[in-house]
Design brief:
3-stranded antiparallel beta sheet, alpha+beta, globular, 3 helices, single chain, two-stranded parallel ribbon
């Protein structure tokens, strides 16, 4: 499975101050989604202020709540055919490691093994 997190560009909402202004230097709403291996969306969560950090968007999302409460219909943990890896959600560096979340190694000081993994 693959998680997607992005910012949807919007016009500055009236009286919003800088809540929607993100680190990419434009106004946005956060969007978080989880898709299966065929890119079919399982869950979509949007509406977070653009200024909210990606990890905070995830931790306060319905997706995170449902993952931690085991309320999503996910494959049972088992190794993928021909691979030493189990089913996981592929995420970026902003996410914390968890039994159901796989993320790359931080980009600094990568040895060859970690670089290949990423």
């Amino acid at each position: 499975m693959r998680s997607f997190q992005t910012h949807i560009r919007v016009k500055k909402p009236p009286r919003s101050a800088s809540r929607y202004y993100n680190y990419k230097k434009y106004f946005s709403i956060g969007l978080l989604a989880l898709a299966d291996a065929t890119y079919k969306f399982i869950i979509v969560d949007f509406g977070a202020y653009g200024s909210t950090a990606d990890v905070r968007i995830f931790s306060s999302s319905r997706l995170s709540e449902r993952l931690h409460a085991n309320q999503l219909v996910l494959p049972e943990p088992r190794l993928l055919p021909g691979s030493p890896a189990p089913f996981v959600i592929g995420a970026d560096e902003g996410f914390a490691l968890a039994p159901h979340v796989m993320r790359p190694f931080p980009r600094r000081n990568l040895d060859d093994r970690r670089h290949i993994f990423n």
